[in-house]
Design brief:
mainly alpha; 74% helix; two-stranded antiparallel sheet; 184 residues; globular
Length: 184
């Protein structure tokens, strides 16, 4: 395993933890918190290799499963994973993997948006909604209605992750070119 992989995998795990428990937006009217979890999942998918994106987010899930309070609301343990938000938690590593898997070839803003929306937002919502349907026994319509508040926030996250990933790739590319020119 390379030094880069040894640093980026735990970096994204740490970002996931910090962006979950430190950076959140409370929406008191609905008694929910909007976190930046999906932002980190999408960014990991856009910047890391598929297996690295998967492992980095899976480590977050495993740390929480062990009881460390890294989930929303400073929760941890298996009861958080098998609770109402478990569909989100369990979908995150899968989404990061699929975003990275389908993020090949020339990277453009529109391609990043499409891939992040399909495999980030839509996949996460699908798994979370199915989980909530099973867990709460509520009607699918009520669950979908309850999820509407998250959509504007997630659109902003997809756009920001797409912009940031392209900027990071651009900086990495120029650093690589500079190194090559120095070597010549």
């Amino acid at each position: 395993m390379t030094v880069r992989r040894l640093t980026t995998i735990p970096l994204f795990t740490a970002l996931m933890i910090v962006f979950t428990i430190v950076f959140y937006i409370p929406v008191p009217i609905l008694n929910i918190n909007v976190t930046l979890q999906t932002f980190v999942v999408i960014l990991a998918g856009l910047l890391l290799r598929p297996i690295d994106a998967f492992i980095s987010i899976l480590l977050y899930v495993l740390i929480g499963a062990l009881g460390f309070p890294v989930f929303t609301g400073y929760r941890g343990g298996l009861e958080a994973i098998f609770g109402p938000t478990g569909g989100f938690i369990l979908s995150f590593p899968i989404a990061a993997y699929l975003i990275s898997l389908f993020h090949f070839g020339k990277h453009t803003f529109s391609k990043n948006l499409i891939i992040s929306t399909i495999f980030g937002i839509i996949l996460i919502y699908f798994i979370a909604i199915m989980w909530l349907d099973y867990y709460t026994n509520r009607s699918l319509g009520k669950i979908l209605y309850g999820m509407l508040i998250y959509i504007p926030f997630d659109i902003v996250k997809v756009v920001l992750a797409s912009i940031i990933s392209l900027r990071i790739e651009s900086v990495q590319m120029s650093m690589t070119e500079t190194s090559i020119n120095r070597a010549i």
